[in-house]
Structure formats: C-alpha cells, structure tokens
C-alpha cells in the first residue's frame, strides 16, 4: 500500500469539489476526481499539479459505476483510499407545486441516492485505511432549517445530515470517521444556474437581493481539511450557516418568522 494519502471527490470538475482537490493535493495528497464533466475534471487536474490526481467520468446515480470508479482510483493511488468526499449535488428551487416530476427525481437521485451509493461503495476501501479514514458528505445550511422555495433541496440536505449521523454510529466499530460540511451560499458555478426549469433568474441574483453572504470555495476546502482531521460531526461553513444554526437552536420562533418573510421561492 502506498504511503501517500488519497482522497476521492465527486463533483470534482468544479466548485467545492475543485477547491477541495486543490487544497488536499497542495498538502501532498493524491486526489481522485469523479464527475460527469470530463472537461471540468481536466481543468481541475491542471490545477492540482503533475502526478497528483486521477479522473474518472461516472454518474453518482449508478451504483455499479461507483464500484468501478473507486476500484480504479484505488489501483491508481497505490491501493489506498483514506477519504471519500460525497460532494456531487445539484440545486433545485421554486415552489414545490411548480417543480416537475423530472426535476424532483433528479435532485433526489443525485443528492440522496448518490450519497448513499457512495457510502456503500466506500466502506470496504475505508476499512482498509482505518482507523482514521473518513467519509465526508457535503450537506448544506439548507439541512439546518428548511428553506422556503427549496423544499426538495432542503429535504435532500436534511437527508445527507441524517445519513452522516446514522453512519457515524454504524461505522464507529470500524474506526471510520463520518463527517459532513454545512455551507451556506458558496461562490461556485452553481450560483449562475437558474433554480428550476421555469426560471431565467440566476440563483446568485436572488442571493444578492436577499443580502446574504457568499462564501469563497477556499473556506469550504479548509473546512473539509479540518473535518477530516478533527472530531466534529457537522462543520458549519460561512456566516449564513452559523447564524442559521444559532437561530434554529436558540431563537426558533424568530427563524420561523424570517423563513416565512423570505419564502418567495427561488425563480419567482
């Protein structure tokens, strides 16, 4: 088994995944990238340095493809995977009544099934490098308190939070850490997307109009490093996430009022 530590990151072709890849490779880790965006992964590889990364195109919704991706990365990394970052995810906004069946199913499949399948496929690899290996899931501030105008997305991120807590209990006997990140709005290409098929308004426009802070991806990458090496189950990233977590715990009535006052669905 290689002495060099290795991390496999889904959604590695852009945004948070790319930032995590750059951060870990900069500290000597071998990085595996998984994404459906081959061009994006190539760009990420150009940023990680020669010989520091491996890319594998696959869809996180495909359970068999997960095994193929991790087996291939393990071979490329010299037989070890220390961290699997379940980071791939998509946004979905708009009122539930206007979300199409296709949009709902796609969001559920990528954000929830993809995380569950990734956890299943990761277990035998993380057992080999335990104790101290880690499954790192990307949840969201939307997993702290439900976000009006993003009910499906909120449901998936509450789900990721629940998966993290459940597997933290299940996998303790193996010495595998299970952690998640709960970022607010991060400055990634996802903010340029419309929240749903019926909208032409970029998510960034709505976030800025609401006066919410947008956090740089580097902050998430640093939080990922701390989560992998620390003992905190949920890691909040950015002022929005920290304020929401504080309010949900200590001032739930106020958070409820704010949620109602700001509940114009994304894209309306």
From TrEMBL:
Gene3D superfamilies: NAD(P)-binding Rossmann-like Domain
Keyword tags: Oxidoreductase
Pfam families reported for this sequence: adh_short (PF00106)
InterPro entries noted in UniProt: NAD(P)-bd_dom_sf, SDR_fam
PANTHER family the UniProt entry points to: OXIDOREDUCTASE SADH-RELATED (PTHR43391:SF82), RETINOL DEHYDROGENASE-RELATED (PTHR43391)
Family to which the UniProt record says this protein belongs: Belongs to the short-chain dehydrogenases/reductases (SDR) family.
Protein name: Short-chain dehydrogenase
Organism per entry: Tsuneonella deserti
Lineage: Bacteria, Pseudomonadati, Pseudomonadota, Alphaproteobacteria, Sphingomonadales
């Amino acid at each position: 088994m290689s002495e060099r530590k290795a991390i496999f990151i889904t959604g590695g072709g852009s945004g948070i995944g790319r930032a995590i890849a750059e951060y870990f490779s900069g500290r000597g880790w071998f990085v595996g990238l998984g994404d459906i965006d081959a061009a994006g992964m190539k760009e990420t590889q150009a940023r990680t340095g020669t010989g520091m990364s491996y890319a594998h195109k696959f869809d996180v919704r495909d359970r068999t493809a997960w095994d193929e991706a991790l087996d291939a990365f393990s071979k490329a990394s010299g037989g070890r995977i220390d961290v699997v970052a379940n980071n791939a995810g998509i946004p979905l906004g708009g009122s539930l009544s206007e979300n199409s069946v296709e949009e709902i199913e796609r969001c559920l499949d990528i954000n929830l099934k993809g995380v569950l399948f990734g956890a299943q496929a990761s277990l035998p690899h993380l057992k080999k490098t335990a104790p101290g290996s880690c499954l790192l899931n990307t949840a969201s501030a939307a997993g702290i308190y439900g976000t009006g105008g993003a009910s499906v997305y909120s449901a998936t991120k509450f789900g990721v939070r629940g998966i993290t807590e459940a597997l933290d209990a299940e996998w303790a006997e193996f010495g595998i850490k299970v952690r998640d990140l709960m970022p607010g709005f991060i400055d990634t290409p996802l903010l340029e997307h419309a929240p749903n098929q019926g909208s032409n308004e970029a998510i960034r426009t709505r976030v800025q109009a609401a006066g919410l802070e947008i956090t740089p991806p580097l902050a998430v990458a640093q939080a990922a490093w701390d989560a992998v090496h620390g003992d905190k189950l949920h890691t909040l990233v950015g002022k929005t996430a920290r304020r929401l977590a504080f309010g949900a715990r200590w001032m739930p009535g106020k958070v409820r009022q704010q949620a109602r006052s700001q509940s114009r669905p994304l894209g309306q």
